């Protein structure tokens, strides 16, 4: 996904789930995206989750 791209969270979730089922079989799993920089990292689910300070 490039800069300025538009994406659909449900479509991405479904594609990831289908990939896991195809390659690993039925299982309970959670796919998380991690945004990482030299300053730290954050987990991205359906929206960016940042720690409260």
Oligomer status: single chain
Low-confidence stretches: none
Strand order of the largest sheet: 1-2
Number of domains: 1
- SSE string, helices as H and strands as E: HEE
Give the termini separation. Answer: 30 Å
Largest β-sheet summary: 2 strands, antiparallel
Using the alpha-carbon principal axes, give the shape.
extended
Count of separate DSSP helical elements: 1
Radius of gyration: 14 Å
What level of helicity do the residues show? 25-40%
The overall pLDDT, averaged over residues, is 75
Strand content: 15-25%
Descriptive overview:
The chain has 53 residues and is α+β, with helices and mostly antiparallel strands. The protein has one domain (1-53). It has one helix and two strands. A hairpin with a 2-residue loop joins strand 1 (33-37) and strand 2. The protein is extended and about 40 Å long. The N and C termini lie far apart (30 Å). The relative contact order is 0.12.
Summarize the structure.
This protein has 53 residues and is an alpha+beta fold.
């Amino acid at each position: 996904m490039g800069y300025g791209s538009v994406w659909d969270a449900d479509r991405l979730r479904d594609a990831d789930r289908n990939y896991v089922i195809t390659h690993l079989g039925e299982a309970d799993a959670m796919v998380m995206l991690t945004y990482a920089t030299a300053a730290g990292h954050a987990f991205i689910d359906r929206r960016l989750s940042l720690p409260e300070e």
